[in-house]
From TrEMBL:
Position of the signal peptide: none
Keyword Ion transport: no
SMART domains in UniProt: LRR_CC, LRR_RI
Pfam families: DUF7885, F-box-like
Region (Disordered): 1-27, 52-77
GO biological process: SCF-dependent proteasomal ubiquitin-dependent protein catabolic process
Name of the molecule in the record: F-box/LRR-repeat protein 14-like
Amino acid sequence: MEDAGQRQHQPPMTKLPGLTPSHGTTTLIHRSGHCYQLHRPHLALPAQAAPQLRPHKQLRTGTSADTEAPASDAAVDAAAANSAAKLQHKQRQEQVAVLTTSVLLLLHRLESRTAPGATHLLEGAGAQPLALQRAKPARHQSSASTHVSSLYPEILALIFSNLDVRDRGRAAQVCVAWREAAYHRSAWRGVEARLHLRKHSSPVFQCLERRGIKRVQVLSLTMRRGLGDVFRGIPKLQSLNLSGCYNMSDAGLNSALGQSFPSLTELNLSLCKNITDASLGKIAQCLKNLESLELGGCGNISNAGMHVIAWGLKNLRRLDLRSCWNVSDQGMAYLAGLNSEAGGNLALEHLSLQDCQRVSDEGLRHIAQGLATSLKSINLSFCVPITDSGMKHIAKIASLRELDLRSCDNISEIGIAYLAEGGSRISALDVSFCDKIGDQALQHISQGLFNLKSLGLSACPISDEGICKIAKTQQDLETLHIGQCNRLTDKSVFTIVESMPHLKCIDLYGCTRISKFGLEKIEVKLPPISLNRDLRQERR
């Protein structure tokens, strides 16, 4: 068995997240979960921090010592190793936090045209590096060894990934080592670049490609610098946001999509009002791997566009058709796969039909027939043609978890009864501004919708009696919106705080009959809650 004293003198090891390998002069970690020896004394664990083992029964010496050792020694070694690992993990987190603070302070000092070492910056802020707090460095070690720029590039990249985009750019201007670490792809993972395509953009795209940025939002386009520059400059583009580019046309999109782009999975064309069904045909041909497509406000999209989407985009999981007024029940039939030629988008999980005034209960019937096992959320807010009968079809969608019925004027307690009686398993329901939803609807909710985590009842004609009804069965509710419900009093507040212990967010804006005492009751009984009682939301 290894001596405990020898284990204390082993070099400290650190476990870093897997990063993309680099074949240059600054090779980064490329094996996730592998432990690497720290090379700087200011990051080393102090010797006195090693866990102390409890005294154990001394083993017999001689030939039989190895064969007759107590079985509990292995358990003691395992416990010691586990304790040491936990201690190293905790101290490593502290080191990263201190180093991140050091970088931020150094950047701040650079803006003032002075750049002392990171150690002095920490001292000026009232903090000291861990090594200075616990042990003094050896005499032969130079002060440069405690400078933050002496860290391995992978640790610098890990620290820079916690900074905002602007500070990462500033860090790249400090020195060559920082520039290489700040430009590493791991430090820019998940960042979305926002561009104005008005001038020659080749250097910009080269910079984005070097940093591995694959998400782009185009803020403005010109006829000379079109969308083709983006696809040519970033060949592995994954997400493209063109929302609000009013001059985006079918011709521009057609010229940009000259070939297939299998890497693109997200496309946002919201408010591109010149886009028509012709563009959707090109998208269906060249962007086969799209998983998210947003077409909100594209008023020229019709059922023909739904036909080509159902035909070509088989991997589509999210579709936003907000305010597409020319899409009707027939378009829903295409999406649901009820047309043999189209095949349907049977992997669709999230569908927004907000303000689609030509979608009625018949369209919901098509959706329930074809997407009953895949659809997780549907937004029907402001869809006036939707009635209580449509809720019969919604209740048949077994996979549905989120239902938005805001401002659906023809939904009443009868529709809520259909949902409850149909065994719906929705966890989020919003019926705000439905003036036919009253206390009787809350009675149906309490009797059949037992999985709710979020409930929206803003501006509904409900009273304290209705709140008492849902409080009996909705103890797991986390979010409750009851703003502008003028009939609610402190009685509702007392019922809520006593019956809903898991509540995290509540909206009481415009509840004029709830007193200051009632609000204080919420703050006392549910302290970690987000409370909205006026135009601003407060975290308690």
